[in-house]
Structures are given as C-alpha cells and as structure tokens.
C-alpha cells in the first residue's frame, strides 16, 4: 500500500510504516495503534512532499529482514532511522515533516479521551462484567464534545488526538456489539456526530480496517469472551469485507 505521489520517491521524503497483518498474514489488519500512524502519514502526505508505503507484517511469522531491525509493531522506517516507540514516532514525524501541524493543546479534550480504551478492554475481556465503566467514559467524551460545535476534538481538522482515539472508538463500536451485544447508545448524539464526521474523512475511510478484521483482532486475544455462535457467519473472514462507516439506523441522524 502506498501513499503520497506516485512514481520515484525521494528517499529523504519517503517513509515506511510497518503494520500488523490481518487474518491471512498478508492483508491489512486491525491494530488501532497501527491505524493511528497510517492516518498521520496520510494527513501529512496530503499537505507536504512526504510519501509513504504501508507494509504488513505477520507477527507470528515475521520475515528475517524485519527481524533484523524491529521486534514489535507499528514501526516507522526513514532512511537509516528505525523507530518503534509510539511517542518517538510522533515526535520524529513532527521534526522531519512538520506540515501540517497535527499537534493540539486542549488538555480537556485529551482528558476526555484518556480512559475510554482501557475501560473497553476490561469489558471485552470480561474483567468488567457490565458495560458501566465503559459507558461512563463514553458519556464523559460525549459531554465534552457536546460543549463545542467543532467537527473533531480540538477543532475542525483532525489532530494527533483524533488519530489516536477514532480507531479505538471504531473498535469499541464494532467489537462491543459483536462480542457483548453492547451498542453505543443513540442518546450520545455528540459522540455519534463526531464519528459521523470521521466517516466523511477520506483519511479515516482509507485507513479503517473491516469489521471482520476488528472482530478477528479481538478473537485472537485469549482473554476475550468467545464470539457468540449465532454471529460466526456474520463475521466470517472469507466473506466480502464489511465496513461500518455509516451511522447505524438506531441513531437519530437529524
């Protein structure tokens, strides 16, 4: 998968992002941390001379070449630089490719997003036997978003915060319903407005994994509750990939 301009690449302006492969060991997988930086690279490539390639890696069977320079995902490679720490990847991209500026200063927005994914993980892995803690965090984010007319968390343009939280919200939407029959409540209208705005963004649509890959991602974790038998056919990996990139029918779209 490639991004930016086509044709020959200037090595100084070209980066490679290694991401987790999907169920077949080759296609694009559903790691939310990988999607975070896929989004970042795509946004920067649209407004600068940056070009990029996305290379999938099967964590169970990485190539010898990959093992020579990395042992986890995602990984950013730029000429001779190899970066694996997520915060270091972000700082490096800011230093080498500052435009567009995706940084943010709204700490209230940061705090509103801070604990959602951990509470989701507790719920999906049955550490929490009810969705109450997750719902509390979703309501907190909804309340923050309701206090602004902005399209996204910190304004009308995607920032690093959105690239971080939106992939996680997509996992919450898809996996919670698949494994736990939990749907993000329609009453959280500001949160759904936020997701609806994301679904209109080419960068999010381009980088979003299929519903089947998201379900597979969590099925691979031994702590996750088994997928109900009645849903196996719905999320079969051999079927045509399905993407939840529209607001569900139960949400008021006015």
From TrEMBL:
The keyword Transmembrane applies. The keyword Transmembrane helix applies. Gene3D superfamilies: 1.20.1050.10, Glutaredoxin (3.40.30.10). It is found in: Membrane. Residues 15-98 form the CLIC N-terminal domain. Pfam families: CLIC-like_N. Keywords: Membrane, Transmembrane, Transmembrane helix. It is a single-pass membrane protein. One of its GO terms (cellular component) is apical plasma membrane. It comes from the Eukaryota. GO terms for molecular function: chloride channel activity. Belongs to the chloride channel CLIC family. This is CLIC N-terminal domain-containing protein. The lineage of its organism: Eukaryota, Metazoa, Spiralia, Lophotrochozoa, Mollusca.
């Amino acid at each position: 998968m490639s991004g930016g301009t086509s044709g020959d690449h200037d090595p100084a302006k070209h980066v490679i992002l290694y991401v987790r492969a999907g169920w077949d060991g080759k296609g694009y997988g559903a790691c939310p941390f990988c999607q975070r930086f896929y989004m970042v690279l795509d946004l920067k490539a649209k407004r600068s001379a940056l070009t990029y390639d996305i290379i999938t890696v099967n964590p169970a069977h990485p190539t010898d070449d990959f093992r020579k320079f990395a042992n986890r995902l995602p990984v950013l490679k730029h000429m001779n630089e190899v970066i694996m720490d997520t915060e270091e990847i972000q700082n490096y991209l800011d230093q080498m490719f500052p435009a567009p500026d995706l940084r943010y200063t709204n700490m209230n927005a940061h705090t509103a997003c801070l604990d959602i994914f951990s509470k989701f993980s507790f719920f999906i892995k049955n550490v929490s036997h009810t969705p109450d803690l997750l719902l509390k965090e979703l309501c907190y984010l909804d309340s923050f978003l309701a206090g602004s007319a902005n399209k996204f968390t910190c304004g009308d343009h995607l920032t690093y915060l959105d690239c971080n939280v939106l992939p996680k919200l997509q996992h919450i939407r898809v996996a919670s319903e698949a494994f736990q029959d939990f749907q993000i409540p329609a009453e959280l209208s500001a949160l759904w407005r936020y997701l609806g705005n994301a679904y209109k963004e080419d960068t999010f649509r381009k980088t979003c994994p299929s519903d089947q890959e998201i379900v597979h991602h969590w099925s691979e974790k031994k702590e996750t509750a088994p997928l109900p038998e009645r849903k196996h056919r719905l999320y079969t990996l051999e079927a045509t990939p399905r993407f939840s990139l529209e607001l569900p029918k139960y949400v008021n779209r006015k």
